[in-house]
Amino acid sequence: MSVTNGRNLRIKIGGITDIGADGYVNGDGTEAAILLATSCSLSVSGDMLESATKDDSGKWKSKVLSGLSATLTHSGLLSTNFSAISSHWASLIAGTEFYWEFTTYTVADPTVKESGAAIFSGRGIFTGLSIDAGDLQNSTLELPIEVTGPVECVAVT
Fold first, then answer.
1. Strand, coil or helix: what is 155?
2. Is the pTM here over 0.85, yes or no?
3. What CATH number corresponds to the domain at position 106?
4. pLDDT tens-digit readout, 33-70
5. Number of structural domains the chain divides into
6. Which of 84, 135, 138, 154 is such that its CA lies 20 to 30 A from the CA of 49?
7. How far apart are the first and last CA of the chain?
8. Burial track 82-110 (b if 16+ CB lie within 10 A, e otherwise)
9. Which one, of 29, 37, 32, 46, lies nearest residue 140 by Cα?
């Protein structure tokens, strides 16, 4: 069993060209990793609906999955270069939906993905921006992304 080095996982964002018949998005090929990352995560959670009836016995509750939701979070060093943050800021203010991937990424060649790795992808919207600027500390930026549709999991071939 191989374990992916956390350093190699990145959130990549790009535009949406269309939504396929299966409901998943297709990227426009201009995706790019959010750089200067110190951490990133994908969290998927399920909403449970209690389905207990009078016919159930005992103290255990019966439940069924009624829906799924997902959130991506990114923490990184804050660049003072305007072009590094301006497009994310504009996207947040406009509520622009974009295509995202959570996958392996090689800084030397951003088109290279680790064969056999999983790519999680979907659509999302930036839902906030947080900047922390402590005295004598690196300034950091957080960009949460709320997923707006299904999450797809595919293998890199």
1. strand
2. no
3. 2.30.110.20
4. 777 888 999 999 999 998 888 877 778 888 899 999 99
5. 1
6. 154
7. 18
8. eeebeebeebeeeeebbbbbbbbbeeeee
9. 37
